[in-house]
TrEMBL record:
Organism: Myxococcus landrumensis
NCBIfam families membership: cas_Csd1
Record's protein name: Type I-C CRISPR-associated protein Cas8c/Csd1
This protein's encoding gene: cas8c
A Pfam family matched in the record: Cas_Csd1
InterPro entries recorded: CRISPR-assoc_prot_Csd1-typ
Length: 576
């Protein structure tokens, strides 16, 4: 289903119309005379060092193997460039092996065609001195080996590889190679075709090789079965294999503004890419021309669709796949399909679940920041796939991983640091706790009532106990001022787990705080109001994990209410 959707995307966007050619940036043109004489190295790079996009014969798959492109390739293949010169032994260096492979393909074309420009390229490649002359056009330290080079001959501006006779030969050669392949029923399209022995590689996947990595691969005996080799283990036609790879590479490609054209970095080793079955124009309207990053997903949810009825676009299919790299292979961590309208609704709910406080909705917090706020100080504790599961839950409208609730509570039990961002970290942790509780309640797993801001009518025992803890903390601060260790530092974790053990002691201390503090009668009044909401058996022996989360939300709500009251009082004094 996933590969079929990607193949359909490639066909809709016409990415695989020409399986023999692709568009890539070419950095330099090598200009030759009619007899193969080197005339100059012409840069096609812009002021940012980006090469000119040009249609070229599709590059072959390669990692450690030697596989040359046809008439266009990097300087390692075209000029035999090597970072370190090969030792003078009988065995040829890598540069010589690569340039020989590049020349071999050119000779194959020359043997069947009478094209003077093609013969000029052959003569140049056979002349070691001419290739050295081309390399000498730039300082040695300027060459990287990745520069893409093409050929022009004489005064022509048309590259040799785009000449009509050359293109026709390349097409015939491709048809001949395809005809020699094994045919069979394609698992993606359901039609008979020439099956791919190996699949093209995906680029720009986190933690994968920079040269690319395979999504479908059987490159070792351990992955094969029933005596089948490589692609025969999952028969997919060459056209479909090329289609799904071109689709993913189009979604994953970098742009000037962002790392992925249509993807979101999820954790350190994963990327979520998404697309629809709309046309390119409709999809631009759906995304409202915004950057598809977490912080801008609200624009996707709220933006009016330009020129099309929202109801029409809401019925379009929405696809999402999360990919993780592992050296030469790519793993699928998550995949699902729904409708655009369903995703919009789920994202609205996601933002609402994370909202904390009575003020206007804040800018959405990226998932990585939420997870950073709840991970252990050592950076350990969360499973590698938790970010993938959280983003998937947001898009699907499902409960967050329960692990997040446990991690956030563990982080709250640690004494706060002196970091000036501690208040913001507290907000992020409690927001995640609140959202996790709401989603658990919505799924029927734990019927809990969680509000956005302080709810003075909420008589849920864990929530009220959290409020009471915040009141007692405020009483201590009013009486003692800034001290090294507050009751939050010492008792928050124990109070949220075992209230009956801690609260009697804290209430005794509060009596002394009230006697010592000046003008804190209003705090005593708040304490009385909060305690009046508790049942006769005020302090349970222990609280379950979900109740501990509700305790933390009550604590935060009451604490922020104190901050809001103080800010209002200061504002009133300033204006008066």
């Amino acid at each position: 289903m996933m590969l079929a959707a990607l193949d359909a995307f490639a066909r809709e966007r016409r990415l695989a119309d020409d399986p023999l050619y692709e568009t890539r940036p070419v950095d330099f043109r090598i200009r030759l005379g009619a007899k193969g004489k080197f005339l100059g190295l012409e840069s096609t790079q812009d002021e940012r060092g980006k090469g000119q996009p040009l249609l070229i014969p599709r590059m072959p798959q390669r990692s450690v193997n030697v596989a040359a492109g046809f008439l266009v390739d990097n300087s390692k293949y075209v000029l035999g460039y090597e970072e370190e010169p090969a030792p003078r032994t009988r065995k040829a260096g890598k540069g010589a092996v690569r340039s020989a492979a590049f020349l071999k393909l050119v000779r194959e074309a020359v043997s069947e065609l009478r094209v003077p420009e093609l013969r000029a390229v052959e003569l140049f490649l056979e002349n070691d001195a001419a290739r050295e002359q081309a390399l000498a056009e730039r300082a040695k330290e300027e060459w990287t080996g990745s520069e893409m080079l093409a050929f022009v001959v004489g005064d022509s501006v048309e590259p040799v590889h785009l000449l009509l006779e050359v293109r026709a030969w390349w097409a015939r050669r491709g048809e001949t190679e395809a005809a020699g392949g094994r045919t069979g029923l394609c698992l993606v399209t359901g039609r008979y075709g020439v099956l791919a022995e190996t699949h093209p590689k995906l680029k720009n996947v986190p933690e994968a090789q920079t040269s690319g990595a395979s999504l479908v691969s059987f490159n070792a005996k351990a992955f094969e079965s029933h005596g089948l080799e490589q692609g025969d283990n999952a028969p997919i036609s060459q056209q479909a294999a090329l289609g799904y790879v071109l689709a993913l590479n189009d979604l994953l490609r970098k742009s000037e503004e962002r790392r992925y054209r249509q993807g979101i970095q999820v954790g350190d080793d994963s990327v979520l890419v998404f697309w629809t079955n709309s046309t390119a124009q409709e999809e631009r309207a759906i995304l409202s021309a915004s950057d598809p990053t977490e912080a801008d997903l609200r624009r996707f949810v709220e933006a009016p669709f330009r020129g099309l009825e929202p109801s029409e676009l809401d019925t379009r299919n929405f696809y999402s796949v999360t990919l993780a790299g592992n050296s030469g292979r790519v793993a699928v961590r998550d995949w699902f399909q729904t409708s655009v309208g369903e995703v919009k609704q789920n994202l609205r709910r996601y933002f609402a679940d994370l909202q904390l406080g009575a003020g206007p909705a804040e800018k959405p917090t990226p998932v990585w920041r939420l997870l950073k706020a709840v991970e252990a100080p050592s950076g350990r504790g969360l499973s590698p796939d938790v970010s993938t599961r959280m983003v998937g839950a947001a898009l699907r409208g499902q409960p967050f991983p329960r692990q997040l609730l446990s991690a956030a509570l563990d982080r709250l039990r640690l004494p706060p640091s002196d970091d000036k961002f501690e208040r913001e970290q507290l907000r992020l942790r409690v927001a995640l706790i609140k959202a996790t509780l709401i989603r658990l309640s919505r799924s029927g797993a734990a019927p809990l009532e969680v509000s956005v801001s302080l709810d003075k009518t909420n008589s849920s025992q864990p929530y009220v106990l959290g409020r009471l803890f915040a009141v007692l903390e405020r009483l201590q601060g009013a009486a003692l001022g800034d001290i090294n260790a507050t009751i939050r530092d010492k008792y928050f974790g124990a109070a949220s787990r075992n209230p009956a053990t801690i609260f009697p002691r804290l209430l005794q201390l509060s009596v002394h705080y009230a006697a010592k503090a000046e003008s804190c009668g209003w705090l005593e009044k708040v304490k009385t109001e909060v305690m009046a909401l508790l049942p006769p058996q005020r302090f349970p022996r222990n609280l379950l994990l979900e109740d501990q989360g509700l305790f933390a939300v009550g604590y935060y709500h009451q604490r922020e209410a104190f901050f809001a009251n103080r800010a209002a009082a200061e504002s009133s004094t300033a204006t008066g």
